[in-house]
Each structure stands twice: as C-alpha cells, then as structure tokens.
Write a structure and sequence with these properties.
The protein is mainly alpha-helical. The chain has one domain. Helices cover about 55% and strands about 10% of the residues. It contains four helices and two strands. A two-stranded parallel sheet has the order 1-2. Helix 1 packs parallel to helix 3. It starts with 5 loop residues before the first helix and ends with a helix. The model has no long low-confidence stretch (mean pLDDT about 90).
Length: about 80
C-alpha cells in the first residue's frame, strides 16, 4: 500500500475481495481500533462497507479494545 490511510486500506482490501471473487461472501470484518480503520468518515471499515454497498458485522480486536479501556482508567486515575 502507498500509505496507511483508511482510503488506501479500503481500496487494497476491496481489490483483493474482487480479485478472489468474494464480494458476495464477506459478512464480517475484523480490525484493530486505529483511527485509520474506525474513523467515522474516512476509516477503512466505513469505506469498505460503502464499496461493498452494504453493512458488515464489525469485530474489533479485543486486545486493542482492552488497551482503550485501560488507557481511560489510567487517564481518569492520573
């Protein structure tokens, strides 16, 4: 990929989905919770759903979810 933007990620994933003829079979997406993936307007997940023309079930990586929870606890306590 030329860069790590949501647009570049969504385009790369969509290209592979088309190349492998899987567009009708994709139901879920699993991702880490970086902004480039989860951004509300330019995140790869939103853009990929737009490219596919339908919503997908989102499976955010639990490891990264726990990092967000721990960070919020730390921020609150410190």
């Amino acid at each position: 990929m030329p860069n790590g933007t949501g647009q570049a990620e969504a385009t790369a994933v969509f290209s592979l989905i088309q190349e492998w003829d899987l567009a009708g079979h994709v139901k879920f997406m699993c991702f880490d919770t970086t902004t480039s993936n989860t951004g509300a307007q330019a995140g790869a997940c939103v853009l990929l759903e737009k490219k596919l023309g339908r919503d997908l079930i989102s499976l955010a990586c639990r490891h990264h979810i726990m990092e967000l929870i721990v960070a919020k606890v730390f921020e609150t306590l410190m």
